[in-house]
């Protein structure tokens, strides 16, 4: 089982969109996938078309509270895809964990308590912040994917994020890799896009990581799919953005299963 998380404390960089597209792509490639929505905004839960069922049932919070014996059971969506949903209840997690010993290890522990061998991949969508919750996501990860919009100002937060990853690494019992950076909402007509990608490639190389070759293009289909509760692949299979995510998914699989 490999845990891959999508992290960037900046909002609106396509963490949720990429988490869904990747989970969907991996499940169609016959991998067993669990997605964990770890954002109190519950955008991934909503994009999966699940909003109303779970409003009073913050699964992701219960998932952390193992000691209370309230195990959250992943909801099976298809043969290969299951989800731990989220809602505003997860807001309480930060306060709850803040004063605890080993506070950054709760999510990892909860994942390790999952029945063995059921999932090939656990994909975690995280919230746009650098909080105890984010530290939990970092510590739970075998690999981290960082989606970013190639524009001025996108780099500011990334160094801070990398510092946090290093801090967690220094106390983590296992390897936490930065699998790579994903260029999202790319507009190739803009010179600033290419410039930003080049800068990011340099930065990635410095830390022994990579920028994935396939960029996800800016496209309305990506913005529309969530309101239909469909993956981008089901909503608009022939769109550029669906094709980009397919190619990215293959690239990620090649990197992670190499
Ligand atoms: N390639 C894309 N082209 C156009 N809009 C996109 C694309 N990817 C994501 N979006 C839209 O941009 C917004 C932010 O994306 P989202 O995945 O929610 O980001 P985050 O989870 O990082 O906050 C959403 O409305 C989403 O539908
Ligand atoms: Mg999100």
What this model shows, in words?
By secondary structure, the chain is of the alpha/beta class. It has one domain (2-256): Rossmann fold, CATH 3.40.50.300. The chain is 41% helix and 14% strand. It has a seven-stranded mixed beta sheet, sandwiched between helices. The longest helix is centred in the C-terminal third of the chain and has 17 residues, at 240-256. The chain starts with a strand and ends with a helix. The mean pLDDT is 91. The structure holds adenosine-5'-diphosphate and magnesium ion. Adenosine-5'-diphosphate binds next to helix 1 and helix 9.
Percent of residues in helices: 40-55%
Radius of gyration: 17 Å
Low-confidence stretches: none
Please state roughly what percent of the residues sit in beta strands, choosing from under 5%, 5-15%, 15-25%, 25-35%, 35-45% or over 45%: 5-15%
| N to C succession of SSEs | EHEHHEEHHEHEHEHHHH
**CATH C-level label:** Alpha Beta
Q: In this structure, how is the largest beta sheet organized?
A: 7 strands, mixed
Shape: globular
State the CATH architecture.
Answer: 3-Layer(aba) Sandwich
> Which cofactor or ligand species appear?
adenosine-5'-diphosphate, magnesium ion
- In whole angstroms, the N-to-C terminal distance is 15 Å
The total of helices stands at: 11
The CATH homologous superfamily is named P-loop containing nucleotide triphosphate hydrolases
Mean pLDDT: 91
Total domain count: 1
What strand order characterises the main sheet?
3-4-2-5-1-6-7
Structural class: alpha/beta
* CATH fold topology: Rossmann fold
How many extended strands? 7
């Amino acid at each position: 089982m490999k845990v891959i998380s999508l992290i960037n404390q900046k909002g609106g960089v396509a963490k949720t969109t990429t988490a869904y597209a990747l989970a969907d792509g991996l499940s169609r490639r016959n991998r067993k996938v669990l997605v964990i929505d770890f954002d109190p905004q519950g955008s991934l839960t909503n994009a999966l078309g699940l909003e109303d069922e779970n409003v009073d049932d913050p699964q992701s919070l219960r998932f952390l509270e193992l000691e209370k014996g309230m195990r959250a059971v992943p909801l099976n969506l298809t043969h290969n895809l299951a989800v731990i949903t989220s809602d505003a209840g997860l807001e309480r997690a930060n306060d709850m964990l803040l004063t605890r010993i080993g506070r950054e290890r709760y999510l990892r522990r909860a994942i390790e308590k999952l029945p063995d061998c059921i999932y090939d991949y656990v994909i975690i969508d995280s919230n746009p912040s650098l909080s105890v919750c984010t530290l939990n996501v970092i510590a739970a990860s075998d690999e981290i994917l960082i989606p970013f919009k190639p524009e001025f100002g996108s780099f500011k937060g990334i160094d801070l994020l990398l510092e946090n990853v290093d801090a967690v690494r220094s106390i983590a019992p296992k390897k936490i890799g930065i699998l790579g950076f994903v260029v999202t909402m790319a507009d190739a007509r803009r010179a600033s896009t290419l410039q930003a990608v080049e800068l990011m490639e340099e930065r990635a190389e410095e830390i022994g990581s990579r920028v994935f070759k396939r960029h996800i293009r800016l496209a309305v289909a990506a913005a529309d799919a969530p309101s239909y509760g469909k993956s981008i692949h089901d909503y608009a299979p022939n769109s550029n953005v669906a094709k980009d995510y397919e190619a990215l998914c293959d690239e990620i699989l090649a990197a992670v299963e190499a």
